[in-house]
Amino acid sequence: MGRKHIGVLGAGAIGQLIFSQLSAHILTHHLSHSFRVDLVSRQAQPQSISFTDLMGNPHSQTLSLLDIKSEQLANIDVVIVCVKAYQVHPLVLSILNKVKPDCHIILLHNGMGPHLAVAKLLQDFPQMGLTLATTSQGALRISPWHVKHTGEGKTSFGHFCGAPLDEAIQKCITNAIPNSCWLSDIQTALWLKLIINCAINPLTAYYQCPNGQLIDDAYQDEIKAVISECVLVASADGINLDEKECCRSVLTVCQLTANNISSMWQDIQSNRQTEIEFISGFIVNRAKHHGIVTPANQLNLDRISALYQMGNA
């Protein structure tokens, strides 16, 4: 087996977390002869990256980032795309003619919807394949190049279309990322993560609180209303989820990532575009398609859209 080259596209909190986990695994288990991992970013100069693990232990390394326009992209066997949902389509489109003809794409982002556009793009690249992924790991970006692992969580992968991912790379990824696995039914896992996003992200951004605060009784009516609507829409889309189990999953994530600041709240604080259109907005749009009314999710969509507009007025 030749050396497999993994690229992590996106230097945000999750991108740096996944890169650090892969890099540490390859180094610790002396796998550099079999695997290489690069962080792909718009910046190509050498960069010192710091990572604080769950135990509070600091780790740092200096590396050269792989520029998104670099000719070295032609050596990449798999790209793990860890960017905002609204960035997925344009970024994937920009690299398809630069990577290997049989490169595999893994999408790991909040919300739902972009995978359909990417699958359509890959129809012109028959040797490529698409895997979808979701994670409930918590990560906080302390500074542009310092990420803190703030919460344990499960990471799930599943084949969506095209050629399957090389088994050796699958094994490397799941061994590197704690509590990760490959699923035959990734769609159900994605819907569950979407519901968790719908219940946590807009509320933490609106009430300006860490995830753990949502455990309080004051938020339970709103959370339950959001979940109930999501489960109804999922059912209309052919995905059957248990409402009580979804409520337990949301509670578990809030507990495991109690100190985490959601990405949506971080975006609002920094006056950045949020992923609300791919989270609450996805639910609202699918609901309209099925003739279902979703006032709780519509309220969250309106709230976050208004906050973003106020911050950029």
How many strand units?
12
* Arrangement of strands in the largest sheet: 5-2-1-6-7-8-11-12
Helix content: 40-55%
Q: Any idea what the radius of gyration is?
A: 19 Å
| Helix/sheet category | alpha/beta
Oligomer: single chain
Tell me, rounded to a whole number, the average pLDDT: 94
Number of domain modules:
2
Question: Per the principal axes of the C-alpha atoms, what is the gross shape?
Answer: globular
Task: Report the span from N to C terminus.
Answer: 55 Å
CATH architecture descriptor of the largest domain: 3-Layer(aba) Sandwich
Strand content: 15-25%
Q: Main beta sheet: strand number and arrangement? A: 8 strands, mixed
Model regions low in confidence, pLDDT < 50 over at least 5 residues? none
CATH superfamily of the largest domain: NAD(P)-binding Rossmann-like Domain
Domain Ketopantoate reductase C-terminal: 185-303
GO cellular component, one term: cytoplasm
Domain Ketopantoate reductase N-terminal: 6-160
Pathway: Cofactor biosynthesis; (R)-pantothenate biosynthesis; (R)-pantoate from 3-methyl-2-oxobutanoate: step 2/2
